[in-house]
Amino acid sequence: MNGDILMESATWNKPVIFDEFPKLRELPWLRIGNMPTPVEEVPALAEKLGTGRMFIKRDDKTNAVYGGNKVRKLEFILADVVRQGLGSMLTIGGIGSNHLLATTVHGNSQGLKTHGIVMPQPVTPHVKKSLLLYAHFGTALHLVEGDANLPGELSRLLDENAVKGNPMYFVPAGGSSPLGTIGYVEAAFELRRQIGEGLLPEPDYIFVPCGSGGTAAGLNLGARVAGLNSRVVSVQVTDLATAFLVSQLATITSTKLHLMDRSFPKNIFLPKDLDHRDKFYGGMYGKLTPEGQEAIKMFEEIVGLDLEGVYTGKTAAAIVDAARSGELRGKSVLYWHTFNSVSLSGVAAMHSYEELPAKFHKFFTCDEHTCESA
């Protein structure tokens, strides 16, 4: 890729934290990802931005069927569902939720049915493709028209299925429960091992999208416990993913791990402990921004990397902004790429929106402007 350098480790059979903290082996876990994910140096992008050395952590390659950052969380979450002997899951997200799709795809591999309560968001081609993929993979969709209607629908579905003798496992948005967050505590230890193998220097900065908070919380906690001095920069892309949420989730996850293995140090995080940047959000979940679109074009042209406008494009915009301000001059920068890179466009093209419940048809007769409040 344009002279970029790909650096990989041998495949590992179990999480690094199981070796570091043996009592954590009691955690539910199953391998669905290809870990560790490779690290790629991108000197052309570093030269363009005026940084020191620049690297990409390729979590888009976590799985050959459907990758992205959700895979790391689902390795712990799906194992817990299976351990509890449940047959279905319920989660929430926007109508174009990558999390819902990942949960469906990897839940299917374990014989699990996925239900998703979804809310409208600006309708882009990516959102339409996601809807068609839900039809392909068999996601049971439940549309609500706004956040205010979410609790009632959530309670209704959980209660109705429990009464029918089919209790559902609730997966929070983005898989960002304390259990799911452990996936990115593990990821920080994976990175430390790759640094030790000489695949990259310890980064001065790690940039990562922050939607539901679990990825950023796990990396902040994992980096601290692993002894990394890297500054984890979480780039907010939803109105929920505040610094308070991330710090709270990191603290709760730390407590959970400490209670399981007392050698895992208990950590408390406050919002002031985080480098959390919210100026790239755009004011509405899923709304495309000019800065994000510029960064997407730059990364595609220079690196050949496919970003999208909701999460990764905005994170790339934060990197571009920090570089132009001089903040990253001479610094080693790691961009943690969380977007699935497996193309499912051909699969989506096999389906029609008419296969979806009637409530969803309207999203195919409007565009990102006329559908913002559809």
How do the helices and strands line up, and which of them pair or pack?
Elements: E1 5-7, H1 16-20, E2 39-41, H2 43-49, E3 54-58, H3 70-83, E4 88-94, H4 98-108, E5 113-119, H5 125-137, E6 140-143, H6 150-163, E7 168-171, H7 178-196, E8 205-210, H8 214-226, E9 231-236, H9 243-260, E10 275-277, H10 290-303, H11 312-324, E11 333-337, H12 345-348
Parallel strand pairs: 3-11, 4-5, 4-7, 5-6, 8-9, 8-11, 9-10
Antiparallel strand pairs: 1-2, 2-3
Helix pairs in contact: 3-4, 3-7, 4-5, 7-8, 7-9, 8-9, 10-11
> Quick one: how many beta strands?
11
Biggest sheet: strands side by side, in what order?
A: 1-2-3-11-8-9-10
Order of helices and strands: EHEHEHEHEHEHEHEHEHEHHEH
**Oligomeric status:** single chain
Strand content: 5-15%
CATH class of the largest domain: Alpha Beta
| Termini Cα gap | 40 Å
Which structural class is indicated by helix and strand composition?
A: alpha/beta
**Fold-level CATH name of the largest domain:** Rossmann fold
Give the helix proportion (percent range).
25-40%
Radius of gyration: 20 Å
The major beta sheet can be summarized as: 7 strands, mixed
